[in-house]
Specification:
The structure holds 2 protein chains of 2 kinds. Helices cover 31% and strands 16% of the residues of chain A. A 7-stranded mixed sheet of chain A has the order 4-3-2-1-5-6-7. By secondary structure, chain A is of the alpha/beta class. By secondary structure, chain B is α/β, with parallel strands linked by helices. Chain B is built from 15 helices and 19 strands. Chain B is globular and about 60 Å long. The N and C termini of chain B lie far apart (55 Å). The chains are: A alpha/beta, B alpha/beta. The interface between A and B is large, with 56 and 85 residues.
């Protein structure tokens, strides 16, 4: 998995609450069997007009946010469908971190499994970041996982919580499955004492 | 005596394989359900790492999202990318020894409909699937939740998941349902009340007289929509209703194993005095048939209400979300919801496509005609549901009323197959998500119960099913 330690990048604002994974990547793009190449479909129905042309009113299409790698959004980001295509699309588009007041559970897990960092900041801190993106052309922040903080060059500094295991996992870019397989003897021991009726009856 | 525990805590404790210091618990998975959309990259990951499926005997697959629902086109998936995805599942199941209920199988259906139907879903088990509506299976007193593709790969390889212990939320539903009010209306009422992130980080246990009185189908509808409140999972304690549903099902325990299982299942309900992190109380008697007006399941009103005025929402976030939603939905504040016309009706999905749902819709449809302005379709949740409905001649009732009667699958809940809304079409849908574009780009979705959907198909607009003229 891709490690995440520290990232400095341009910030794009998406000032909406409850952005669901159907918006992040619509269903017609879930039919592919690859893990890569989803960035072109990110926010498809918002980025493109019905005739396929770019919608200039959508915020990510504004030239001032071109090349952004940190997304700041409203609460409950990533709600709805469990599709991991959502973090794949965000990452493939170029995002390395998402900052919001809260995230949907499955989406947040899917992000960390791919080295895309979900950062929870307070409503006030998120509002400040959103304001900064509109006030300062080319506004950028540093997301520092080691120190658990988001900072900019003009004095913005916010700390965020992340559990120690998840942090270590991301910092070191660990192999999740490999780590679990180190507990193979425990899994086998557990299987020996499982209740027989927990296994589907053979027919 | 040991500390009183909740249903969730009992199942959790029973499935912890190990709890390494400073790490989340390693939780054993008793049943892994797989479908074509969220699994190909997981199987590919196994291949690249030279890993096998640890427990193919605890893994079952089906095709549901991409499958056509027109009988004549059942075996032809015209979209080559979708066809490739279905083929990939076939190859993966073959290569890794995973049983597959394929498109022509009598057991095919929406993964969350066939699991219970086949007796694969049982009380006390842990169950996962790469699909957020896995919460459905919690209706049996199982701990069931949706996962992403990386976690699908993890479960295939290890039969375990690393999990932070979630918090617990009890939703106590007091009293009894008024006539015409269903589990769907309760689910929408709960989401409207606590919000679409009201249960984030929590496992919900639904309890109270009204929940006890629900059939297994109703409990599945209720647990299904837990994810729409942000919950990790939703559960209902197992009881006689649960056991009666499961007895004799194909993969359910048999003989002495059945008795042993029931004796264990009876120990699962939450102990008196057990503590939840939060408790929310709902009065069932105060519920009414629900209709969503916006682009989030929490944007819901009762059928007697009017489309709300965004200016009356308390926060700027809610005001701007409501304004945006009304613009997308093409609705004006203050319009009585019953005056809103519909062009399409979808009765289907893992939320509301079981036999009981189809019976409720057919009872409304019987002796009536679908409005000339509406195209309405019924998509059974599984092949078995379809057959059972046909034995009761529900298909005839629907057809005579002018509904299309389709083959089983996820269909227009998310429109990965050819069943989609055209831009600006307005649909009364028994599914679970009214997100922008969910049923088709620029399509407009209103979530309702099966009876409400059938009534809207006939009237051509939303109506209060409590006043319906039944012709049975």
């Amino acid at each position: 998995m891709q490690a995440f330690q520290l990232h400095t990048g341009r910030v794009a604002p998406l000032d909406r609450a409850n952005v669901d994974t159907d918006q992040i990547i619509p269903k017609q793009f879930l039919k592919r069997i690859e893990r890569s190449g989803y960035g072109q479909f990110l926010f498809y129905d918002w980025r493109y007009l019905a005739d396929g042309k770019t919608d200039p009113s959508f915020i990510l299409n504004h030239p001032r946010y071109a090349g952004a790698s940190v997304l700041v959004a409203g609460r409950n980001f990533g709600c709805g469908s469990s599709r991991e295509h959502a973090p794949w699309a965000l990452q493939d588009y170029g995002f390395r971190a998402i900052i919001a007041p809260s995230f949907a559970d499955i989406f947040a897990t899917n992000c960390t499994k791919n080295g895309l960092l979900p950062v929870v900041l307070s409503d006030t801190e998120v509002a400040k970041l959103l304001l900064n993106t509109t006030q300062f052309e080319g506004y950028f922040v540093t997301v520092d996982l080691e120190r658990r903080e988001v900072r900019d060059q003009s004095g913005f500094l916010a700390h965020f919580e992340i559990d120690d295991f998840k942090r270590k996992f991301l910092l070191e870019g660990l192999d999740d499955i490999g780590l679990t397989l180190q507990h193979e003897p425990d899994i086998t021991a557990y299987e020996r004492q499982r209740k027989s009726f927990a296994t589907p009856a053979s027919t | 005596m040991s500390r009183p525990r909740t249903l969730f805590e009992k199942i959790w404790d029973d499935h912890v394989v190990c709890q390494p210091a400073g790490e989340p618990a390693l939780l054993y998975v008793d049943l892994h359900l797989v479908h074509e959309v969220t699994s190909p990259q997981a199987f590919e990951g196994l291949r690249l790492a030279g890993r096998r499926v640890r427990r193919p005997d605890l893994t079952f697959a089906t095709v549901d999202h991409n499958v056509p629902t027109l009988a004549a086109e059942r075996s032809i998936i015209r979209d080559p990318i979708a066809a490739q995805q279905v083929d990939a599942l076939r190859h993966n199941c073959h290569d890794f020894g995973v049983p597959l209920f394929d498109i022509d199988s009598a057991d095919q259906g929406i993964v969350h409909v066939i699991g219970p139907e086949l007796g694969l879903t049982r009380p006390g088990i842990t169950l996962v699937c790469g699909d957020s509506h896995t919460s459905t299976h919690g209706a049996f007193g199982a701990l069931a939740f949706g996962i992403g593709t990386s976690e699908v790969e993890h479960v295939l390889a290890t039969q375990c998941l690393r999990q932070q212990r979630p918090k617990t939320l009890q939703i106590l539903v007091r009293g009894s349902f008024p006539n015409g009010v269903t589990a769907k209306d309760l689910a929408l009422g709960i989401i409207g009340s606590i919000g679409t992130d009201g249960a984030t980080g929590h496992v919900i246990e639904y309890a109270g007289e009204a929940v006890r009185a629900l059939s297994m189908e109703g409990r599945m509808t209720l647990c299904n929509m837990s994810i729409e409140a942000g919950a990790r999972a939703g559960m209902v304690a197992p009881d006689e209703t649960t056991f009666a549903y499961l007895r004799g099902r194909r993969f359910a325990p048999k003989g002495a194993a059945w008795d042993e299982a029931v004796a264990y299942w009876e120990t699962l309900p939450t102990d008196p005095g057990a503590q939840f992190d939060r408790v929310v109380e709902i009065d069932a008697a105060a519920l009414a048939p629900a209709v969503t007006w916006g682009t989030s399941p929490g944007m819901v009103i009762s059928v007697t209400e009017r489309v709300p005025d965004p200016q009356r929402f308390p926060s700027e976030v809610e005001r701007s979300a409501a304004l945006r939603a009304l613009e997308y939905m093409g609705l004006r504040p203050g319009t009585p919801i019953q005056e809103v016309p519909v062009n399409r009706v979808f009765i289907g999905s893992c939320t509301n496509a079981r036999l009981e749902d189809l019976r409720a819709a057919a009872r409304v449809a019987k002796g009536h005609r679908v409005s000339s302005k509406v195209m309405a379709m019924v998509v059974p949740g599984s092949h078995a549901v379809k057959q059972a409905a046909e034995q009761e001649k529900l298909d005839q009732v629907f057809r005579e009323a002018g509904f299309e009667w389709r083959e089983s699958g996820c269909s227009m809940c998310l429109g990965m197959n050819p069943d989609i809304l055209q831009p600006l079409e307005r649909c009364a849908s028994t599914s679970n998500r009214n997100f922008e574009g969910r049923q088709g780009a620029r399509g407009r979705t209103h979530l309702v119960s099966p009876a409400m959907a059938a009534a809207a198909a006939i009237a051509g607009h939303f109506v209060d099913v409590r006043n319906w003229e039944y012709r049975d």
